[in-house]
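Both lines are quoted verbatim for reference:

——
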Amino acid sequence: MSSQRVVLVTGGNRGIGRAIAERFVRDGYRVAVTARSGEGPEGTLTVRADVTDAAALDAAFTEVEQQLGPVEIVVANAGITKDTLLLRMSEDDFDSVVATNLGGTFRVVKRASKGMLRARFGRVILISSVVGLYGSAGQVNYSASKSALVGFARSLTRELGGRGITANVVAPGFIETDMTAELPEETQKQYKASIPAGRFATPDEVAGVVTWLASDESGYISGAVIPVDGGLGMGH
């Protein structure tokens, strides 16, 4: 039964979001992704939406509902960075990151929760980051937006936990993506030295945790923060 459920992954056209969407497709779920541009992986329905635009999101959800059915699992993954030190950070650098990473999660989860309440089943999975709790110089905006997802998931658990709906946070560390591949070799070496596992994660290692949280097996886990960071941020 669980593999026929409908999943929506925001920002599912690249990076970790794409790997998550691919994994759900492989496991037999019906999968939609939101993307501002580009397409989701093969086997997914791509809908155009910017998570900062509630009307566009509503239209995207309606399209998914018409083509696949009510969204039962939502993965809030869309995110942006505008890294700079606090004293150089503009109002827009701060506001736009929070509007996308935190505000976007609010809009997506609010719209998804209506169908979940009707179905008395739902899985809300928020993609945070190791720096949400570990901190990172030059990322006050990003780190704040990502740590906020913990309070979001825990408050949602208290509101909706009795209705068959869980809300959890996955906090990836350094992942092998196009972004990390562009880092100078020396920088990559320094990062790996601080990670007990001694390597970066593959996107699929994050995706595996997400699909497990979406499954019936994890129905009694809610309000949890699950790090996928090779031990970098121990203490979550």
